[in-house]
Design a protein that fits this description.
Blueprint: H1 2-20, E1 28-31, E2 37-38, E3 45-52, E4 55-63, H2 64-68, E5 75-76, E6 80-87, E7 93-95, E8 99-101, E9 112-120, E10 125-127, E11 130-131, E12 133-134, E13 136-144, E14 152-164, E15 170-179, E16 186-192, E17 200-206, E18 218-224, H3 226-233, E19 246-251, E20 256-261, E21 267-271
Parallel strand pairs: 1-10, 2-11, 13-19
Antiparallel strand pairs: 1-5, 3-4, 3-6, 6-9, 7-8, 8-14, 9-12, 13-16, 14-15, 14-17, 17-18, 19-20, 20-21
Length: about 270
């Protein structure tokens, strides 16, 4: 009988040792395969950034399907971490660890992102919660010109050149992008969140090659502060969780600008001087 009791005690000892073992030095693994993580229709690659105070850890780039199926082993230390997820990075680049900036002369990438603050990683698996919200707006401008057969170029200018991945707030700087128009006569651009209403569209008309101009072969005929119409005129919120696209018609003949926000049931018409 004593031998049997001894065998049982010997069998239980390893289990007791495992339960009492200090796990503080063991890693935690991030978990995305749950209802709190919402890709919101985004199906590309997601960059995972982990911040422990000012310290930065690159969690790698993973497809949405891999995250949902719990394939990546994203290992982090134990504590309280900010976990940021950014999808759609293409031509934008990182400046230090937190700023994602637009390459000069380019438009904003089609970026979707969120940041889950103070994720408790004092455990084996830590759930990351958040929705990949749209961090850019597509502006589609249609021109109504007195000379419809003359080629035009639109230049968009503004004071925001990207965003901080932890706060998702805009980063200031000079933004310039040339839009040459599409087959459906729309001059489109993807722009980041804005700091103010200083977004302008400059209209250039084709002219004689060799005439001095900012854009060779084109002369500037107008500059319109569309940011003022979008924010002051319609109350567009550049700090919204997910940004809506914007359709604008510039009627050079009627001296008007009409602005419509996607999914809004309102179109505002403004009079301009050209």
């Amino acid at each position: 009988m004593m031998k049997r009791v001894l065998y049982i005690l010997l069998a239980v000892l390893p289990l007791v040792s495992c339960v009492k073992q200090d796990r503080s030095d063991c890693p935690c693994y991030l978990l995305f395969s749950h209802g709190g993580f919402d890709a919101a229709g985004f199906d590309g690659n997601v960059q995972v950034d982990v911040f422990d105070g000012p310290a930065y850890q690159d969690g790698g780039s993973h497809s949405v399907s891999e995250l949902i199926e719990d394939e990546p082993d994203i290992e982090v230390r134990r504590g309280l971490m900010d976990v940021c997820c950014i999808g759609g990075i293409d031509r934008m680049y990182r400046e230090v660890d937190t700023r994602l900036l637009i390459t000069k002369g380019e438009q904003c990438d089609a970026v979707y992102a969120f940041c889950d603050f103070l994720v408790d990683t004092n455990r084996e698996r830590a759930q990351v919660n958040g929705t990949l919200n749209k961090q850019f707006a597509v502006i589609n401008v249609t021109l109504v010109m007195p000379e419809p057969d003359v080629r035009h170029i639109l230049r968009y200018t503004g004071n925001s050149v990207g965003f901080d991945v932890r706060s998702l707030k805009p980063v200031g700087g000079e933004f310039r992008y040339l839009s040459y128009g599409s087959d459906d006569d729309k001059y489109s651009v993807r722009i980041p969140r804005q700091l103010d209403n200083s977004l302008f569209v400059e209209i250039f008309r084709e002219t004689v090659i060799g005439v001095p101009s900012e854009i060779e072969g084109f002369e500037k005929v107008s500059s319109i502060n569309i940011g003022r119409f979008i924010t002051d005129g319609l109350g567009y919120d550049w700090s919204a969780e997910s940004l809506s696209d914007i359709d604008i018609v510039i009627d050079y003949v009627g001296c008007t600008v009409s602005v419509k926000i996607k999914d809004w049931n309102v179109v505002r018409l403004f009079t301009i001087e050209i």
